[in-house]
Amino acid sequence: MRWRVLLAYAVLYLVWGSTYLAMKIAVTTMPTFWAAALRFVVSGLVLFAVGRVTSKVPLSRAHVVTSMLQGVLLLVLGNAGVMWAMKTVPSGVGALIIAVTPVFMALLGGDRRRSTWTGIVIGLVGIAILVDPFGHSQDVPVLGALVLVMAALAWAAGSLLPRHLEIHPSNATAMGMQMITGAVVQAGLALAIGEPLILAQTSSQSWWAVLYLAVFGSLIGFTCYGWLLKVEPSSRVATYAYVNPIVAVILGAAIGGEPLTARVLVATGVIIAAVVLILRSSRPALR
C-alpha cells in the first residue's frame, strides 16, 4: 500500500503540475471549453469502459447521481470556472486564490488540528511569495476573483462528496461518469457562448497537448486523486495545490525560458516546509 500511495502523490505533484503548460499549449489554437470537453470525453469514455469490464458491481441510480454531481462540481464549476476566470484575472492573483482549495478541504473535511492549519497558512505564504500577486499594482476584477473562489470551493466540495453520498466502488467507473458529465456540460457551454471549433485552424501542438491532458492529466491523474481521497486524509491530499505551482514554474523555466529567480527558490523552500508539516500532522489513513 505504501509505495502505491507515494506513487499516486508523485503523479498529483508532478503530472498535475505539468498540466499548466499543456493547457497553455492546448488553448493557443483551440477554444478553452472545447479543449476541456475533448480532454474529458476521451478519458471519461476509456475509464468508464475499463470500469465496466473490470467491475461486477452493477450501476445504481445513486452511483450515477453522485458521479454526475461530482462531474459538475469538479470539472465544470471547478475546472471550467478557473479557465473562464483566467481570461480577466492576472495569473499570479489567480494562482493565489486557487491555493485556498486546501483551506476549503480542511474546513469541509472537519480538520481542526492546529498543525494542519499552521501548514496551510505557511503554504499560502509560500504561494504569495511565488506569484508576487500585488507586486505590480495589479487590478483584480471582482467577478473573476469571485468565480475563482467559487471554483476552489466547488472543487473541495466535489472531492469530499463521496463521504456523504454513495459512490460506485470502482474508481474507473465513477471517474469515467464524472468526466463524461463534465465533457457534455462543457461542450454545451461552448455551444451556448458560440465558441467555434475550427479544425483547420487547430495546430498539431494543441491536439498533442489535449491528448497529454486526457491520458496523463485525466486518465492517470484523476484516477490517483480519486483513490487517494479514499485512503488518505483530505488535508494531506490537498497538498498538491501547493506543489503544482512549483512544478509549473520549473517547467516554465526549463521549456518556456522563464527566469528562475531567488524569489522562486525561497518560495519553493517555504512551500515544501508547509507540505512536510501537513503530511506529518495528518492521520495515517482514512478507510
Shape: globular
Specify the biggest β-sheet: none
Q: Spell the H/E element sequence.
A: HHHHHHHHHHHH
* Spans where pLDDT lies below 50 across 5 or more residues: 283-287
The Cα radius of gyration reads: 18 Å
Would you report the number of β strands? 0
Number of domains: 1
Beta fraction of the residues?
Answer: under 5%
| Percent helix range | over 70%
Average residue pLDDT = 83
Query: What is the helix tally?
Result: 12
> Span between N and C termini?
12 Å
Which class do the helix and strand fractions yield?
mainly alpha
In words, what does this structure look like?
This protein is mainly α. The chain has one domain (11-281). Helix content is 75%, strand content 0%. It is built from twelve helices and no strands. The chain has helices at 2-26, 32-54, 61-85, 91-98, 101-109, 114-131, 142-160, 171-192, 204-231, 234-237, 240-254, 262-281. Helix 8 (171-192) packs across helix 9. The radius of gyration is 18 Å and the shape is globular. The chain starts with a helix and ends in a 6-residue tail after the last helix.
What is the element layout, followed by pairings?
Layout lengths: L1 H25 L5 H23 L6 H25 L5 H8 L2 H9 L4 H18 L10 H19 L10 H22 L11 H28 L2 H4 L2 H15 L7 H20 L6
